């Protein structure tokens, strides 16, 4: 008689999950003992694992033993206290618990009807976070805009660039795609260039304006005006501007208010990428770094960078949700339902690239509830104080030179 594969029952789940939680807890307890950067050579794992899957089931303990001896040596330990690359360690117990619960429920929330709580919780927590950042009312769900959780800031800039592209092409005609021009600085994340590639914007029409230390590597409004005027004079169509709050190389902050006014006067979609530094703006003393966001059409920050929320959780707000929906919506027969057709609900499938989506709002909700706004503000402030302390150490060492101040309050 053939072996029957039976689903794991509740008691088996309890037993296995306890073992897994113990394993992860022990990993975190000893994580600082690992070299942060993996020391393995390319192709190392191929030599350690079989070349085909096992015919018979194996025990969880055997698998965990292999994780410890074969997988962990090939891991770069992003949550290590000794990790200083890219952006801060992004995990927390609250975020992890939310991730566990999301995995356990395991629904696919592409439209409201597929799991109403997933859609409605996402609307609520992004309104909460938007209010913490003091975003304009237009970005909240009570108006014509609203928030949505994307996987990454790269996805966020792509969806708003597509919305901006289609909005302008409806006005000037689809044949004008080759004339569209997008703007950023030479410090803007490469996600802008990738979004242009995907959207069909010619590579030479992605303008990355030169910055320098005299402006702390922020975009010069004068330089932007010159570029826009030149492009218009030769028959091109400026349509998208990406400003950054906290660039990758130098945490530069672009002058949002001045850039926003330029964008608005030229009919350009203005996107603010605050993926890294935006989290700091929940503190009133650092909110000034996004002054001018009221001029933006879209705003993005990554909760998975400096907000204790496990990857992936990138919050995007738009002032005009219909611009996204018009660009990204599909409505085949199998997705139709009464609530959607009556426009009574939000269907997040129309605000993103993929159809499927996870219950990501759970982990953000748990971070906000288990820590609270005041503790999250203290967490950010402590990091900034540590950075200032480090800056003082560097400034006191003649081998180094500091050229920018760390999050100076205005």
From TrEMBL:
Alphabetical UniProt keywords: Decarboxylase, Lyase, Pyridoxal phosphate
Chloroplast recorded as keyword: no
Pfam families, per database record: Pyridoxal_deC (PF00282)
Domain of life: Eukaryota
SUPFAM superfamilies tied to this protein: PLP-dependent transferases (SSF53383)
UniProt cofactor(s): pyridoxal 5'-phosphate
Family from the record: Belongs to the group II decarboxylase family.
PANTHER family assigned to the protein according to its UniProt record, in alphabetical order: GROUP II PYRIDOXAL-5-PHOSPHATE DECARBOXYLASE (PTHR11999), MIP05841P (PTHR11999:SF70)
Protein's name according to its UniProt entry: Tyrosine decarboxylase
Organism: Hevea brasiliensis (Para rubber tree)
